[in-house]
Write a structure and sequence with these properties.
The protein contains 7 helices and 10 strands. The protein is α/β, with parallel strands linked by helices. The strands form 2 sheets. The protein has a 6-stranded mixed beta sheet with strand order 6-7-8-3-9-10, with helices on both faces.
Amino acid sequence: MLTVDNVVVRFPKPHSQLIFKKEYQTILHGVTFSVRKGECLGILGESGSGKSTLGKVICGLLEPYEGSVTLGGTALYGKSKLVPGVLSVVFQDYTTSVNSRFTVREIIKESLLVLQRRTRTQIDFETEIMELLELVGLSADFIDRYPHQLSGGQLQRVCIARAIAVKPEIILFDEAISSLDAHTQVQIMDLLLKVKAIYNFTYIFITHDLPSVTYMCDRVLFLYKGRVAEVVDVEAIGTVQSEYARKLLHSILDIKVE
């Protein structure tokens, strides 16, 4: 479904001491991995590990200095163009990821318009929006509310409905539950698992939270200082070999590493 091959990202240093030549800081160092159709891959790392930068590359928002990203056989960077709506994103900051002047109806309808253009079919917007709200556990009463009239968990459910609406091949969650309280986090993760089972979506779950990875994901990629430290099945997470992964497991969970 998704292949990331030898991706390198670097930025000019803002206070370089060189006069005639720029100095660069490398954020991602030859990152390579793949995501299988229908699985949930967790990308786990501490602050500064390069998770957000990698997420931008996967979404097509940041062209790498070297390497390639291929989604469903189409290169994200180059002459070929990715079909709109094939990849959806749910962001950490749900308050700024929606238009504060839009109602819930208008927020979700934006995605349905993309789907309509892609499929060239007429969509009954009102029916689809109602069905999506029901799917994410919100009643029809929410359809004319504005973002400021919703709780954090409710607004994130709207964002998930918006992501689902385009019927994407893959959904990327960039720290999508980290700003919610623990009880709401579990509710949202249960919702995501239910939606994944219904549509067989492929998920990429970027986070710094190991418990959510073990709850949500099939495999986990440990990212350390812009490098892939290890990729392992969640069921075999106690058998990690890299020093970073072993230390991270010991520091967060009471897991005996073999």
